[in-house]
Amino acid sequence: MPFALAAYAFAVTMCGTTLPTPLYALYQQKLGFSSFMVTVIFAVYAVGVIVALLLLGQLSDSVGRRPVLLAGLVLSAMSAGCFLFERGLPELFAGRVLSGLSAGLFTGTATAAVVELAPKRWATSATLIATAANMGGLGSGPLLAGLVARYAPDPLRQVFLLDLALVAAAVVGVLLIPETVRERHGTSRRPRRLHVPPSVRPAFVPAAMAGFTGFMTLGLFASVAPSFLKELVGVSDPAVAGTVVFLAFAASTAGQLLMGRVGVHRALPWGCVALVAGMALIASALIAASLPLLVAGAVTAGAGQGLSFRAGVTMVSEHSPPDRRAEITSALFVVFYVAISIPVVGVGIMAVTLGLRPAGLIFSGCVALLAATTTVLLWLRPVPSNV
Questions:
Q1: Distance, CA of 159 to CA of 66 (rounded, Å)
Q2: What angle separates helix 126-151 from helix 155-176, to the nearest 10 degrees?
Q3: Tell me: the pLDDT tens digits for 52-86?
Q4: Predicted model pTM
């Protein structure tokens, strides 16, 4: 089934982007860098995503979905190669940049491809499948790497060999799917700036607002959650760290499934409410140095992120012209990846100057405040159902 192959390639690519998360503690021991450097390495990845989205987000609308997906997989394989032959920080930075570029190419293109390849009987679930592949891939990376790091003799190498095998299978899958872009205009010498048409903005703006708070939370778990576990809770097992991060992303997928019952327009504010509750639990976990509270916070916040994320992507996809869908989806993800990167670097800076616990508490408070503000605005001005 072509759309299943596209979803698999999407999941594998996103999985590769989060593989290093539970391994950062091992790299810290090996190379001797600080928790702040972890956030910088993570931010470099996000910068790569944003650059690809801004400059190439509309590319697949012009040249076709398959060429862009194949380019993204090549970049993903190159990223794995950098980690496989890592000798220091330069390879880590290079690997993260390549991974970010890969994710940036894939995010809008693969979402559009999965929606367009879905058969009619799956049409109502196509966006869910695309977003679940995205979040499922992101969540499976830390779990896979954590388990390999716990049980494999060479954790910093073998997981990336496995990743290369998964990417190779994805390349075969993408070569087998049909092209969904009928009219190809070729590439231009100057990349076109991403643009959201006025008719789409009533759906785009609230989706971006709600998604911003959720992706701030995911950025926290995908970068410094292992440091929280090691330094504040006293848990250094990479399998545990990978599992906690996985639970946040798994809860996001569960939240996306729940959106079908809650409804698109109610899912946005209720997702933000769950984010506020999740931040309260995470703050409590940091104060009490409690692993159960941290897990509860990860699950609650992840579910809220999933609710608002799927609702936002669904609204934007439904109201985007077919020939602009990848471009507009890419613009939405630019907002998300700004949220997932810049605030996390702030956590790293605060961790150096104030300490890890105060940094986490300040971050949790800021996310809760933004989520609460977004909830009030959405209830005061709900998105019209006939946009």
A1: 27
A2: 150
A3: 877 776 777 778 889 999 999 999 999 999 999 99
A4: 0.80
362, 329, 27: which is closest to 220 by C-alpha? 362
Closest listed residue to residue 277, CA positions, set 194, 234, 217, 237: 217
Give the C-alpha separation, 51 to 191, whole Å.
11
How far is it, in rounded angstroms, from Cα 107 to Cα 130? Answer: 9
d(CA 244, CA 171): 30
Residue from 252, 251, 385, 376 nearest 318 by CA: 385
Tell me the DSSP string of 137-194: HHHHHHHHHHHHHHHSS-HHHHHHHHHHHHHHHHHHHHHHSPP---S-----SSPPPP
Q: Could you give the percent of the chain with pLDDT greater than 70? A: 94
pLDDT tens-digit profile of 253-311? 899 888 878 887 788 889 999 999 999 999 999 999 899 999 999 999 999 999 988 88
